[in-house]
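Can't paste images in this forum, so I'm doing it all in text. The chain is below; anyone willing to post the predicted structure tokens underneath?
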Amino acid sequence: MHRLVPLIAAFALCSLACERKSPPPPAPATAASGQRAPTSEGPIVLGTLGSLTGSEASFGTVVRDGIQFAVEQVNAAGGVRGRKVELRSYDTQGKLEESVAAAKRLLTQDRVVLILGDVTSSGSLAIADAVQAARVPMVTPSATHPDVTKKGDFIFRTCFIDPFQGGAMARFAREHLKLERVAVLHDSKNASSLGLSEAFTEAFKKRGGTIVAVESYSKGDSDYRAPLLAVKKAKPQALYLPGFYSEVGVIARQARELGLSQPLLGGDGWESDRIFELAGGALEGAYYSSHYAEDNPAPALQRFISSFRARYGRSPEAASALGYDAAKVAIAAIERAKSLSGPDLRDALASTKDFPGATGNLTLDADRNAVKPAVILTIHGGQRHFAAAVTP
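Text version of the structure:
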């Protein structure tokens, strides 16, 4: 999710890629890659990176909690391959240059066997080339932009991609809500927001709907009245807001202040309890697509929710379930891999099929993307409720 990669990140990424080509400190190396071979004793080290502070912290921290919880469970059960799992976690502050720096530390200093992250699409895009060059598998729990896994065969994700998610909401809007005219307001510097906007628009038009206006804003804006007034002038039946909770909550409140009473539609970037504080009740009656619904009775999900509550004293958000599933899929691949080398771990990840995750049974397809259902949730009384499921 989410900002497009700026020039400074591109330069930093180039520097990182070049540094990976320089000789590493003396250590045993694999013949294929020249990288230091994984150690055969001590903990198996995994890395994770995401926004733990800054404007996106409410998202990054809950993903990290899910990953950490999965690691704790595995270690309590004896570890993997007879060894404990150690997690090295770095804060990107929601900045692309920090994502690049964190990936560099994980690859060159911590010598992790696998990276879980980045949590955002833009962050994942910023580090994917360097991770691919290092031949270290990367599994992002929550980066939904389709270009992420196109970076190479060591890049995986355990969430569905934007074209499916955007299409799922368009299908729900036409078939369930019977909408014919919808406006779109997206973040022009957010990779996921743009991807969802494009996917929703294409799918909605294909199903006979009309997009009456497409407006934009930029991450960090505080006044959204100009694009909202343009939306109001177009007289849509609903407004699609595929943005991040930190902006969407404020946009929703300002939309209501301007007299826009139409239903609001969104995507998984809404998944934070912080959105309710920012919106102040303005999301009542809204719908958004996400990865799971807490009131889904699926046994694997309910076991996860119960144990997570016992550990953290609160219900998990969808992002925690995504982090949990990513870690569990990765650790299962480590268990069945021929060795801890990057290529062997990659091959084991690629064979993931019908994995019973908290967010549903998960299969990784030939493009290393997760194939699993999406859910549509509605907001009433400041609470999320399951509305529908959309299968691939």
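The CA atoms of residues 162 and 195 lie 6 Å apart. The first strand starts at residue 44 and ends at 50.
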